[in-house]
Amino acid sequence: xxYLHRVDSLxxxxxxxxxxxxxxxxxxxxxxxxxxxxxxxxASRSYRYGFITNAKHLPFIDFPVVVDxxxxxxTEWEVSALRSSRHVAALVVTNEAAAGRxxxxxxxxxxxxIGHGLRPSEADPALARKMRERKRxxxxxxxxxxxxxxxxxxxxxxxxxxxxxxxxxxxPTVVTACPRARLWLVGGVGRALERKLEHRPDIELVGHVPxxxxxxxxxxxxxxxxxxxxxxxxxxxKVAQFVGCxxxxxxYRGVPTELISRLECGLTVDSADDFTAALVRLLDxxxxxxxxxxxxxxxxxxxxxxxxGGAYARLLDDVLPI
Length: 322
What we know:
Number of strands: 10
CATH class of the largest domain: Alpha Beta
Low-confidence stretches: none
Strand order of the largest sheet: 7-6-5-8-9-10
Largest sheet: 6 strands, parallel
CATH superfamily of the largest domain: Glycogen Phosphorylase B
Order of helices and strands: HHEEHEHEHEHEHEHEHEHEHHH
Number of helices: 13
Strand content: 15-25%
């Protein structure tokens, strides 16, 4: 949003506290018919165009809009809303796979691709230094970043955030082969997982970190990982941040890791055995880590919001002329 100077930031903001945020979000979502009509009715008297990030707003809009779908689900309702609205001037997604899927589902509106990015200023040097001080002598830090880290027995367990595969299947093989390795979990930690990992010297529970501080955490990683096996057409902002912070990555091959495959700044694999082998190889081979890190650093402009933001602003000017 800071790069889109034509866009007035008229947002309904929820609390950053998990339970309160959940209640507020559900309340807003269930009453969208009421406040949607009221808000967009008022907007139509003041604005010629709109920029929205929620397809549920489309029924209440009667002026041209650009729709940003950085987290598409491709449900029948979502596709129908986008396809039937005569006010969608353009759709923006984060990767070509999502654009192709929408076209396959019958969307004929212009579709543009602008990936996830990182603001270079986000990696605060003082905070990065503080995070590196948490490392043990001779430690090789493997970092995984997610909003939440849960186990199957945690309340609110979700396949997207469960780390059982990582903790039970991948990590034991890695730390046995490379005793210097230590896994950092950055993000909220479920109570069951916290109990499970209590007193584990090979795992550091960093916990919740404000979004703007995540890059500083990444600056302490020797290797980043993306151990999700869920197949979908959504890009990963964390993968883009790894690239922006010049951290080599090991991940399962798919749309979320397409960026590191294309930029050749990490290792993508197809099986659990290949994942552990690739991670151990990267931890044992410092020259390889340095080469992959250098490739990420050289490609940083492709995930720099100073570049992406300008491209997005030009897109709005083209699609919604002043």
